[in-house]
Amino acid sequence: MRVLFRNQSYLMETLLVTGSVAFDRIAVFKDRFKNHILQDKTHMINVAFTVDNMSVHFGGTGGNIAYNLTLLGETPYLAGAVGSDFGDYRTWLEKNGVRLDYLKELPDVLTAQAHVTTDLDDNQITAFYGGAMFRTHEARLDGLEKIHLAIIAPNGKEGMLYYADYFRKHRIPFIADPGQAIPAFNAEELLRLFKGAKVLILNDYEWSLVEQKFKIQNSKFKIFDSVEHLIVTYGEKGSKVWSRDGKIAEIPAVKPTKVVDPTGCGDAYRAGLMYGLKHWFTIERAAHVGAWIAAKAIEYPGTQNHTVDQKELKAFLQSLN
Predict the structure, then answer these.
(1) How many beta carbons lie within 10 A of that of residue 87, not counting itself?
(2) 299 in Cβ contact with 257 (< 8 Å)
């Protein structure tokens, strides 16, 4: 088994997650949207979909990554902004061991919320309210304790740039994970976001968006002027790791025992990656940990309802040696 700590002082270091904190309100419309939307009237839609059930889940990229880290035995910090309705979510995160020292509660707005309605064809209509998320830059990191590794996950644009500048200034290694926030950035801002990152991680669609922003089609290696490693995920096809030293590694996906809900599996992958890097795994082995816990997330609805059997985790980690 790999030695987890190099020295006693290492025990003082922890992980920092920056990313959105949100409520996911998910409803199922037991029909098909197309049966209720007139194709020649799409310019003047006025439609109400009656749903039979609705579930509320704790979510957001930051909340999801932090939760998955606790399943792996970590006690991460979570930085970001939430609103006046955060109470139950706060209780949940604290119960699971997430440190909220750098989470700012804003009394005059609500926590970010995604209202998702899904029909029988798995089409989705989503209304997203950013709320406190757009004021993430107000969640300052002054007096931050020693951090081994941080991640900048999708969040309010101004906040993401603030965190990137802070990590570079204080020499804190970080993972850049711009995700669904990419369209909000121009090329210069994106460069500012991930310049100096230890890892840039994206799914294949997001990587295509970055290629377009930087006009670097078919040349992933130009990105290494700014980052040490690039990871692109491909869903059930696994992921691929490119490194500045020229190494390329393909990481197979781990097959879940059942597929219930893929939402949040990407956030779980990022948590596994952070865990591995903190414990001095190679980037390839850290990515394997990400693939393993991503499979766990798929087996349950929502993004924070799965668990990890510690004996199974230990056996998996031993298998990586």
Answers:
(1) 11
(2) yes
272-297: b (≥16 Cβ within 10 Å) or e: bbbbbbbbebbbbbbbbbbbbbbbbb
Q: Given the DSSP bridges, would you call strands 199-203 and 229-233 parallel, antiparallel or unpaired? A: parallel
Q: By residue range, what is the domain housing residue 312?
A: 9-22+59-113+131-319
Statement: the pTM of the whole predicted model exceeds 0.85: yes
> How many domains does the chain divide into?
1
Q: What angle do CA 104, 110, 111 make, to 5 degrees?
A: 60
Q: Which strands, in side-by-side order, build the sheet including 229-233?
A: 103-105, 77-82, 14-18, 147-152, 174-176, 199-203, 229-233, 239-243, 248-251
Provide the CA 117 distance to its chain's centre, in angstroms.
Answer: 22
CATH number, position 241: 3.40.1190.20
User: What burial letters (b/e) apply to 152-168, b meaning 16+ CB within 10 Å?
Assistant: bbbbbbebbbbbbebbe
CB 118 within 8 A of CB 29: yes
* 35: in domain: no
Question: Does residue 167 contact residue 174 with C-beta atoms inside 8 Å?
Answer: yes
- The answer as to whether 162 is a domain residue is yes
Question: Is 123 inside any structural domain?
Answer: no
Please give the pLDDT value at position 1: 29
Q: Rounded to the nearest 5°, which phi and psi values hold at 212?
A: -65, -40
Under-70 pLDDT residues of the chain: 1-12, 38, 40-44, 122, 216-221
| Burial class of residue 239 (count of CB atoms within 10 Å of its CB; 0-12, 13-18, 19+) | buried
Token digits of residue 177: 């994970």
- The Cα–Cα gap between 75 and 192 comes to 29
Give the pLDDT of residue 43: 67
Asked whether the beta carbons of 18 and 175 are under 8 A apart, the reply is: no
Contact 278, 15 (CB under 8 A): yes
Angle at 303 between CA 299 and CA 309, to 5 degrees: 55
Residues designated catalytic: 267
Beta bridge partners of residue 19, listed in sequence order: none
* Residue 50 located in a structural domain: no
